[in-house]
Amino acid sequence: MAEIKKLQTPLDESLVRSLNVGEQVVLNGVIYTARDIAHKRLCAAIKESKSLPFELEGAVIYFAGPTPARPGRIIGAAGPTTSSRMDSFSPVLMQKGLRAMIGKGYRNDVVREALKEFGAVHLAAIGGAGALLAKHIISSEIIAYEDLGTEAVRRLEVVDFPAIVAYDAEGNTIYQEV
Which class in CATH covers the domain with range 4-177? Predict the structure, then answer.
């Protein structure tokens, strides 16, 4: 069985550049959720030189909109959403230091080139496993865009959050290997 790499956030560019397609990783530390509209707002803030709700350097963004938590729970199901919906926004965020994204599915060629240029990776989480993935989240706090409801930006603290390197910092993809 292949070794599972343990990653601690925030991520260092040299570490990210050492990751290879198909490697299994677990994330520990802080990650942030953001989907389409939140990405659009983050990019607009960058364009307007406004401050962001979190530091992008070394950050990990999880393309997820968790469901509301049941009583006694930290968070509801927290599965990944389709990554390609963030393709037009991701290069702008990588340019500002975003080191990893977590989602499901393909990324376009512009994103692949940005991964190489800025030293970032795209990680795949298993779709349909939101309840299981939520078990790796030990805290959740809305930090921006509360008006977006479940798609607000959240600061999540995670322990051994599982993912697979789907696109590495060389632009290689697991989807060509399958």
Answer: alpha beta
- 49 backbone φψ class: left, alpha, beta (φ>0; ψ -120 to 50): left
Q: What is the DSSP letter of 82?
A: B
The pTM for the full model equals: 0.95
**pLDDT single digits (tens) 45-101:** 999 999 999 999 999 999 998 998 889 899 999 999 999 999 999 999 999 999 999
* 3-state secondary structure at position 160: strand
- Which positions are catalytic? 39
HSE (CB half, 13 Å, CA atoms) of 132?
7
CA dist 100 → 51, 76, 163, 167 (Å): 20, 23, 11, 10
Locate the domains of the chain by residue range: 4-177
